[in-house]
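Example for tutorial group B:
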């Protein structure tokens, strides 16, 4: 059974079409990777799924657990169990980490320890002055506290050092496997996939999904031939 279905999705920002003819089905407990070069529409896809208002769905629909959520506001989608870890999580001045985490849990210290952050972070403002690795670890803390059904990871492997990536990757993989979470992971470099090990992958170019299939085969091709080959392959299909 699919937990997430995107059916013929067309999305605009203002008058510009940024996603077109998007069809995607993610099964329960499935981990799927979305590859694509910068500007291909990967982050726009994630933003449309979570319901950021500036991303206007003009055609098609989004189903979550067979329910049409196309017109639901972002907070209602979150209530259903959809969580996004952002590529560039925002800083929130005036809001302390401990107060933010109280929205999800009454054991903030355990949540931070799980993510590799110590209790001194509880009195800091959310993401203010955090390093790249600290921001991504705090995203992991939020995942642990929120306990989502569907996890959307937007370039969580960007801007972190090797050791932080290893820590984050192992923590996420263990948590996802234990809790049987469905995951859609967007990546350009693919380093996080060494730990998450998706079963399938899709490639996005110019706001469209141009191919889907075996993760290892697609990633091997991209590493050896680059995204230029994907574009040529798509042209040959026409």
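The residue assignment follows.
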């Amino acid at each position: 059974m699919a937990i997430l279905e995107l059916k013929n999705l067309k999305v605009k920002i203002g008058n510009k079409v940024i996603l077109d003819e998007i069809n995607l089905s993610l099964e329960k407990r499935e981990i799927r990777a979305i590859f694509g070069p910068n500007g291909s529409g990967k982050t726009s896809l994630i933003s449309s799924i979570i319901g950021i208002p500036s991303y206007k769905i003009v055609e098609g629909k989004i189903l979550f657990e067979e329910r049409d959520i196309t017109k639901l506001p972002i907070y209602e989608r979150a209530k259903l169990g959809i969580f996004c870890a952002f590529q560039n999580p925002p800083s929130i001045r005036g809001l302390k980490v401990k107060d933010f985490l109280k929205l999800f849990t009454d054991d903030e210290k355990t949540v931070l320890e799980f993510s590799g952050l110590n209790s001194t972070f509880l009195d800091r403002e959310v993401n203010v002055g955090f390093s790249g690795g600290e921001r991504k670890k705090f995203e992991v803390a939020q995942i642990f506290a929120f306990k989502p059904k569907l996890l959307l990871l937007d370039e969580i492997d960007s801007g972190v050092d090797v050791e932080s990536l290893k820590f984050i990757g192992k923590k996420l993989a263990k948590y996802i496997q234990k809790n049987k979470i469905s995951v859609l992971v967007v990546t350009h470099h693919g380093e996080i996939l060494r730990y998450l090990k998706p079963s399938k992958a899709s490639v996005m170019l110019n706001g469209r999904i141009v191919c889907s299939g075996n993760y290892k085969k697609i990633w091997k091709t991209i590493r050896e031939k680059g995204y230029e080959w994907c574009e040529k392959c798509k042209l040959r299909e026409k």
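The mean pLDDT is 90. Compare this with the pattern of hydrophobic and polar residues in the output above.
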